[in-house]
Amino acid sequence: MKKQPKIKMQRFTFKDFETMFPDDATCLDWLRDYLYPDGMFCKICEEIRPHHRVASRPSYSCDYCGHHVHPTAGTIFHKSSTSLKTWFHAIYLMASTRCGISAKQIERETGVTYKTAWRMFKQIRTMLTDDGGGPLSGKVEMDETYMGGVRKYGTGRPMVGDRKKTPVAAIVERQGRVVAKAIPTVSGAYLLPMIREHVAPNTIIHTDEWRGYEGIKQIQTKDHEPANYRHRTINHSSRVYVRGDVHTNTVEGFWSLLKRGIGGVYHSVSQKHLQSYLDEYSFRYNHRKDIQPMFVSFLEQIAKQ
Asked: What distance in Å separates the CA atoms of residue 252 and residue 241, rounded to the nearest whole number?
């Protein structure tokens, strides 16, 4: 059988960006077309009506009654003193790199102040929470790691009371999506509820030998029915990393992308903002196989909030 060619993500260069979004008006038109694909609904007329652009403000007016519709309402662009094209440019810069971009680089590229760049950067990241797609299923892998500075006490896993590092857990669906969460501890009290929330019943779960996973087979669904998870473990402490198809290499690959990205671009991340960075890298990972450019995936996710 002839091997099917791999479908690649479409290219979207800065020249493409400038052609597609030359000014604020075209950015607003894109937002209108995306949010109202069937036409703008007028609340006064109570039906879809033709609208025309208002020159003095980022809105559209109903041709019949004059009621204004603001496409930016409810988005991070609403009532912002920063131009809409600058927002789109910042989103393009964040989406066009594999490992992210710093707020300082956004400042240099867009010409805004660092304070403005950081605010835009933060708001864009908070919109990248990707809850679509339903629960993970099939074969999944779960692992935990620690993010942050050097341990307070010696080496190895952080001890109770060690606040230098933040525990993070991730569940990865093989050839699929990832869910990553910052958690207080890596005990079963937090790992098992995360599995119940994000993994479909009857799924095969691959983990290492960490004792926090010991109760996986006893997990019940929200309806108090057995989840019937099948638990496969690999003993990393004995330097066994693959046994047949039992391994956690997929989730380890996600950790590699996350840590190299944060270490190389941001250098350090505070506990307060760590979850938003996890959401950003998870979103990139979950949309890595999209045909449309990553910039468009970013833009659509941000606009629909």
From this structure: 11
Q: d(Cα 111, Cα 123) in Å, to the nearest integer? A: 18
Its sign, for the CA torsion 242, 197, 160, 258, is positive
Q: Structural domain boundaries of the chain?
A: 14-36+71-130+293-303, 139-286
- Tell me the C-alpha distance between 235 and 228, whole Å: 22
Query: Could you say which DSSP state residue 264 is in?
Result: I
Q: What are the structure tokens assigned to 174, written together?
A: 């093989």
The domain over range 139-286 is classified in CATH as 3.30.420.10: yes
Among 179, 187, 193, 190, smallest CA distance to 222 is for 193
Q: Give residue 243's pLDDT band: very low, low, confident or very high (50, 70, 90).
A: confident
Mapped onto helix, strand or coil, the DSSP state of residue 177 is: coil
Across the strands, what pairs with 145? 168
Q: Where are the alpha helices (DSSP H) in the chain?
A: 14-20, 24-35, 84-95, 103-110, 114-126, 188-198, 249-261, 274-286, 294-303
pLDDT in tens, 79-138: 899 999 999 999 999 999 888 888 999 999 999 999 999 999 999 999 998 766 789 999
Q: DSSP character for 276?
A: H
